[in-house]
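The records we work with from here on pair a chain with its fold. These numbers are not coordinates but entries in a learned vocabulary of local backbone shapes. To see the layout at work, look at the sequence and tokens printed below.
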Amino acid sequence: MGRLFVLSLEGKIYSCKHCRTHLALCEDIVSKSFQCRHGKAYLFSKVVNVTCGETEERLMMTGMHTVADIFCVGCGSIVGWKYETAHEKGQKYKEGKSVLERVKISGPEGNNYWVSHGAHIGGSDADDA
């Protein structure tokens, strides 16, 4: 295994809840209106310190997308997914952006997000698109 290079961010940071590796800045949030199996998720224009898994086709609430799961480089935990391709014209804004699941990250104030018993259990995607 090689040496691990991790970028440190400055400002209001979202980090991996397991190992505290920096993942994204608050200012890079595109939308807080996304949903995943575990509840809320945020769409970011830029994330760091993640690796991408294999791309796959997923049917989400807003249509078919080509996505890749993203993993924290610090601990290997899955933290969300990256949109590679949106097959519907109205969803193209998602391409190249990443979704971080709130239950898997800590917020800028160090707070964790816990799954409520009423969390949406269906597919992953934006609920406002």
